[in-house]
Amino acid sequence: MTKYLIVGLMAAAVSGCSPTNKEEAKPVQKEAATVKILTLDPAHFHASLVQKLMYPQVSPVVRVYSPGGDDLQGHLARIESFNTRAENPTKWDEKVYTGADFLEKMCAERAGNVVVISGNNAKKAKYVLDSVVAGFNVLADKPMAVVPADFATLQQAFKIAAEKKTLLYDIMTERSEITTVLQKELSRLPAVFGELEKGSVEEPAITKESIHHYFKEVAGKPLKRPAWFFDVAQQGEAIVDVTTHLVDLVQWECFPEQVIDWQKDISVLKARRWTTKITPAEFKRATALDSYPDYLKKDVGADGNLAPCCNGEFTYALKGVHAKVSVMWNFQAPEGAKDTHYSMMRGTKANLVIRQGKEQNYKATLYVENKTGADAAAFEQALKAGVAQVAATYPGIEAQKAAVGTGWQIGIPEKYNVGHEAHFAQVTERYLKYLAAGQLPAWEVPNMLAKYYTTLEAYKLSR
After folding, report:
1. What angle do CA 238, 239, 244 make, to 5 degrees?
2. I need a labelling partner for 305 at 20 to 30 A (CA). Which of 79, 91, 111, 313 fits?
3. For residue 442, how many C-alpha atoms fall within 13 Å in the half-sphere facing its CB?
4. Which whole number is the average pLDDT over 103-114?
5. Do 117 and 127 meet the contact criterion of CB atoms below 8 Å apart?
6. How far is CA 183 from the centre of its chain?
């Protein structure tokens, strides 16, 4: 179904999608059972992952609007690989327009009703705003904001989307990862978890850490990164990029389905940022380029290595609960490893911990650590009863003695470990349900604003 649609976004006042006759653009009319995707300037591989599967309510014809170039060709090649794979091939029909006026062309043709946005993050907030001004629904990859000025743009975009009754939504894939889902479910069980602690700056109640890599494989092939991906001015620093996922999970797990007020509920307390060194040989391996573009030379040291400021972490209080999120970028993962995630939720009776290191064979594993001391037998009974309750929704999960340490771990059937790429389809399916209903859950929009307020306040404090 959905392909990442990058709607050209210039400032609303001069936007290619803005009406030229001073009349407000009319919202795209919904069709009974058909969603038509527009993909504009797809410049990140996430744009293709939305289309890794087909969806019955989505037209197979996808309109792509782009200035052209390597980013577009890479996107189309990935879609073609989905169409020609041996198992469960897709049937996407990509109709491509290239030209300097790609944004104006998309708005003039109005050949679809959902714009999917995934690409150069420096353009994204304006792309989002232009899309909703034109009356399109928007499904946007994270982050939708990378510098403080983007927050006002997002506020305006959500206001206009509400007025036009269109849906603006960002792609939070990590809500579909099974160990995170179960961590949330177990934290809802007072007999097992107790209550979420408030924590402190030194010992936060919830900690999330993510390690990513510039060189990786996607859909079984080495990923070619665009050079701009290494420029934090275009991709966004880690503190506003991948942390979007982590802040979203903190909100989603600690205060599920509760509205968070960005003006009252959030206080960013500490923040810092640092660099990763990348050699010229590594840069060439990831991009296939022999030299650094001019816009990267500001980050090249005397040793010739590129050192983007791509790592970041911050500690903040959310409704009185202390949380810490950290994101690090290395060049390549260790043998057998991929991007990894660590998470701890501290309860009064137990800690819920996700580890994905060498001891876990780099597979995310959820542990339950008993904090009740001598009440081991009672805790075991409560844990098994609680897991059985959750298993009514996720059949097959069970409490097991931990293979590492003395605590417990949650046994999870392999069918739930679908992998990161499959999560894009799961997010898309949720979005399609919201489109059919004509609305998002009441807490989603205020919590998206809260999330981006948090990351952008951390961005400012890190300086």
Report:
1. 90
2. 313
3. 3
4. 92
5. yes
6. 18
Which residues does residue 58 pair with via DSSP β-bridges, in sequence order? 35
Number of residues in the chain: 463
Residue 127 CA to residue 144 CA, distance in Å, equals 9
Strands 408-411 and 365-370: antiparallel
Pick the CATH number of 12-171 from 1.20.1290.10, 1.10.530.10, 3.40.50.720, 3.30.700.20: 3.40.50.720
The whole-angstrom separation of Cα 143 and Cα 166 is 20
Of 321, 369, 312, the C-alpha closest to 203 is 321
Q: What does each C-alpha distance from 156 to 16, 270, 336, 356, 443 come to in angstroms?
A: 17, 28, 44, 39, 18
What's the whole-model pTM score?
A: 0.90
Map out the domains of the chain as residue ranges: 12-171, 175-419
Span 7-51, pLDDT tens digits? 333 333 334 565 433 334 444 444 444 899 999 899 888 999 999
DSSP 8-class letter at 226: -
Average pLDDT, the chain: 90
Pairing of strands 311-318, 93-98: unpaired
Q: Which fold has domain 175-419?
A: Dihydrodipicolinate Reductase; domain 2 (3.30.360)
- Alpha helices by DSSP H, 20-89: 46-49, 70-84
Q: Rounded CA gap, 63 and 39, in Å?
A: 6
pLDDT at 103: 85
Residue 279 tokens read as 């050699």
Q: Are 132 and 160 in contact (CB under 8 A)?
A: yes
Query: Where does 265-348 show beta strands of DSSP type E?
Result: 266-274, 311-318, 321-332, 340-346
